[in-house]
């Protein structure tokens, strides 16, 4: 009890003209080295037999190390999905040296290496630490990587910058003494724009950062959302938690969960079950805990927030006009460039700039896979044209958040040369799929090949444009890593008496109008799923009114017409 | 069972006796269940008393007993079952308990730093525990990013360096 504690000031960021992410100083690096030493010690104890596999498992999981079907999978943390070009290059190096030359970007805005050897993991950790990266808390029953809007700091509708709070939560939750052995994993998402691009209603905690009439920052707190085998949309706990009390409130939310969450049955251990079962009593307990905890102790000092915010100061945007003539001419002259720009280029808050989404969904490819060469190509483009910053999106794509509009043709050329200019962002073939049977030990069906078949069937771009916005999400088992419940079309692969069967749900959404999809009827065999998707889309096109997206038509006409089309002839 | 003083890594003699529900009360300091501690028969007892808090009991349910206690014992039934961390923090933070808090159960050296930061004083080391691993583990990471029970003045959200006493 009489340990002494000395406060340490936050680092001040140096501001070279490049990526805005939290800059480590020697203290953060020392912490990382200590942590690597700790894990190396754990590996040694395991190898000497002092730790049983049961004892070692939660420890290795807390360092992102999973045992999969064929090998260890190593999940690397990309804090709130932001990478510097240097970090991306290092990931390319790791992919080449210790994996099979590629990595896999996930819906949790992290990267996974699917083919690492246990003996190499300490070396991989050291290579990551060279660029201030790690795999701490990428697995295990602790607070995981916080996810945010991939257009943070660039989106015109942003009210509060979520990166600042995601970084604060990252630090606060790192080796949290009370919350490292929770009943189950715990995921927080933050959006700082009225348009929710972080899926806050399907996370354990979802934060909507906003400003009141006086311009003060506060948070709407949602709790108990999640997918998996019991999909539940989150409950709003509070309309407003003031900025300086954010961590105190999170402490209360998680303390109640740690004390009362179920531990016996792993399928009932997420906070969503506790919130559902306790109902208002959960809120009352959180409020009581919040009321009695010492506020000063958990206070988030506005001065410290300002120091963290400096790390995310806007890069030096040049004063530029929108729609520069050369880019406008290229759009007119080159249909291929124009088709790509239409899907991949988004408005930016700084005039003359844009955000570029890079599709990791080539037709017939593996959603989220990226080769070492491609990582290096993106790193180079980021350095040349985007202040050296890259984001990972929650639909398994990459984003260059700040690109000059005049550089768009050059960026497109560079992406095209690297095989990264598929013009399908936001279209039907921009599919989310979990690893499924190809990698995952828990899978009951393949999911990657299903994504590949569908993407090939609808390869024709005109057809995809005709269909418009429609998201397909695929999971290879009930754990729902592919978010099938919130896909406009959700596909879940299950095992039905030894054969793969795919259940289809319609009408899901993970944004402001969050909804869980409805099951359309009996499942489809592996070789019939693509036909079923095609039938669903034909039905939509036949019923669509002017300007409707797939999900709009579905909400208007309901399941019946789709059911009829799918099962009447069968 | 060896007893580890978590703040400085010393081994201590353990003079406490866990007492079964129907066993007679010993002279030595006794660890009892909440029910036994509420037994009127205990009223005249002058010896030091401890309470065995099971993971499903909330500290507020036994708060009335705390003034009489010199020790509270918490337990991790499994390494992954971390309810004790919240109990210990609440005992210190909400109930101002200043006596010994002892951790027992399926403990690993990897728990050491977290136990200490939440307010545990002593650890009943499992049979065959590697003392050196415990000592190393308590100190290997000495930078922390969040408030815990090991600081006097409230520091709020900021980084801090932990130093053994
Ligand atoms: C291949 C190794 C993997 C394993 C063993 C695995 C295992 C699991 C399990 C067991 C759950 C359910 C947890 C629960 O509901 O309590 C889960 C949920 C989840 N996984 Fe995975 N997963 C893997 C890969 C992935 C990948 C590659 C992604 C991202 C593309 C991912 C994203 C998610 C997400 C977002 C959830 C949360 C769904 C929810 O809200 O409940 N997982 N995973
Ligand atoms: S949904 Fe199932 S099959 Fe897919 S990655 Fe998750 S656990 Fe594996």
From TrEMBL, chain A:
The keyword Iron applies. GO terms for molecular function: 4 iron, 4 sulfur cluster binding; heme binding; metal ion binding; oxidoreductase activity. Gene3D superfamilies: 3.90.480.20, Sulfite Reductase Hemoprotein, domain 1, Sulfite Reductase Hemoprotein,Domain 2. The keyword Iron applies. Coiled coil: none annotated. Signal peptide: none annotated. Residues 139-287, 431-566 form the Nitrite/sulphite reductase 4Fe-4S domain. Residues 72-131, 366-418 form the Nitrite/Sulfite reductase ferredoxin-like domain. Keywords: 4Fe-4S, Heme, Iron, Iron-sulfur, Metal-binding, Oxidoreductase. InterPro entries: NIR_SIR_4Fe-4S, NiRdtase/SiRdtase_haem-b_fer, Nit/Sulf_reduc_fer-like_dom_sf, NO2/SO3_Rdtase_4Fe4S_dom, NO2/SO3_Rdtase_4Fe4S_sf. Belongs to the nitrite and sulfite reductase 4Fe-4S domain family. This is Nitrite/sulfite reductase. It comes from Roseicella aquatilis.
């Amino acid at each position: 009890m009489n340990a002494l504690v000395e406060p340490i000031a936050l680092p001040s960021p140096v501001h070279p003209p490049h990526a805005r992410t939290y800059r480590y100083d020697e203290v953060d690096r020392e912490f990382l080295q200590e942590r690597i030493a700790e894990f190396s010690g754990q590996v040694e104890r395991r190898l000497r037999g002092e730790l049983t596999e049961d004892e070692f498992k939660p420890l290795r999981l807390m360092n992102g190390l999973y045992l999969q079907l064929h090998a260890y999978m190593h999940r690397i943390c990309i804090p709130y999905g932001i990478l510097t070009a240097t970090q991306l290059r290092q990931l390319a190096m790791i992919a080449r040296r210790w994996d099979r030359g590629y990595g896999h970007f996930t819906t949790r805005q992290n990267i996974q290496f699917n083919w690492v050897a246990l003996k190499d993991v300490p070396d991989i950790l050291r290579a990551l630490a060279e660029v201030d990266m790690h795999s701490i808390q990428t697995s295990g029953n602790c607070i995981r990587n916080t996810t945010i809007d991939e257009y943070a700091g660039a989106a015109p509708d942003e009210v509060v910058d979520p990166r600042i709070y995601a970084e604060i939560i990252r630090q606060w939750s790192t080796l949290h003494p009370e919350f490292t052995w929770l009943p189950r994993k715990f995921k927080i998402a933050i959006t700082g724009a009225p348009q929710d691009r972080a899926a806050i209603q399907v996370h354990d905690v979802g934060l909507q950062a906003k400003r009141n009439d006086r311009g003060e920052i506060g948070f709407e707190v949602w709790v108990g959302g999640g997918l998996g085998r019991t999909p539940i949309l989150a409950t709003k706990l509070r309309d407003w938690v003031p900025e300086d009390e954010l961590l105190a409130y999170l402490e209360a939310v998680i303390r109640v969960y740690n004390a009362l969450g179920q531990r016996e049955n792993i399928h009932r251990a997420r906070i969503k079950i506790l919130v559902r079962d306790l109902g208002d009593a959960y809120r009352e307990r959180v409020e009581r805990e919040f009321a009695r905890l010492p506020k000063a102790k958990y206070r988030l000092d506005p001065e410290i927030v300002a120091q963290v915010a400096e790390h995310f100061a806007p890069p030096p945007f040049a004063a530029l006009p929108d729609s520069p003539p050369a880019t406008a001419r290229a759009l007119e002259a080159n249909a291929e460039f124009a088709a790509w720009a239409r899907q991949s280029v988004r408005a930016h808050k700084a005039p003359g700039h844009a955000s570029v989404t890079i599709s990791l969904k080539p037709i017939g490819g593996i959603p989220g896979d990226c080769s070492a060469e491609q990582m290096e190509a993106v790193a180079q483009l980021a350095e040349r044209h985007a202040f050296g910053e890259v984001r990972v999106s929650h639909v398994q794509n990459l984003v260059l958040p700040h690109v000059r509009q005049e550089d768009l043709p050059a960026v497109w050329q560079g992406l095209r040369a690297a095989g990264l200019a598929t013009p399908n962002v936001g279209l039907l073939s921009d599919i989310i799929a979990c690893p499924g049977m190809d990698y995952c030990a828990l899978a009951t069906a393949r999911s990657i090949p299903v994504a590949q078949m569908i993407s090939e069937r609808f390869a024709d771009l005109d057809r995809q444009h005709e269909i418009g916005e429609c998201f397909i999400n695929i999971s290879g088992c009930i754990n729902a890593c592919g978010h099938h419940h919130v896909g406009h079309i959700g596909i879940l692969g299950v095992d039905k008496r030894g054969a793969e069967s795919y259940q289809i749900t319609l009408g899901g959404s993970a944004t402001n109008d969050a909804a869980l999809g409805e099951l359309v009827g009996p499942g489809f065999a592996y070789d019939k799923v693509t036909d079923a998707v095609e039938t669903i889309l034909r039905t939509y096109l036949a019923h669509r009114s002017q300007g409707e997206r797939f999900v709009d038509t579905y909400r208007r006409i309901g399941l019946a017409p789709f059911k009829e089309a799918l099962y009447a002839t069968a | 069972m060896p007893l580890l003083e978590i703040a400085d890594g010393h081994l201590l003699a353990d003079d406490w006796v866990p007492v079964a529900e129907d066993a007679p009360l010993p002279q030595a300091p006794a660890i009892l269940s909440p029910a036994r501690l509420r037994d009127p028969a205990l009223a005249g007892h002058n010896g030091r008393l401890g309470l065995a808090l099971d993971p499903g009991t909330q500290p507020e349910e036994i708060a009335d007993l705390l003034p009489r206690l010199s020790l509270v014992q918490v337990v991790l039934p499994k390494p992954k079952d971390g309810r004790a961390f919240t109990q210990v923090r609440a005992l210190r933070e909400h109930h101002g308990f200043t006596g010994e808090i002892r951790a027992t159960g399926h403990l690993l050296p990897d728990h050491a730093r977290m136990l200490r930061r939440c307010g545990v004083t002593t650890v009943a080391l499992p049979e065959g525990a590697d003392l050196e691993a415990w000592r190393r583990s308590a100190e290997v990471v000495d930078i922390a990013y969040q408030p815990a029970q090991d600081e006097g003045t409230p520091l709020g959200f900021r980084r801090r360096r932990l130093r053994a006493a």
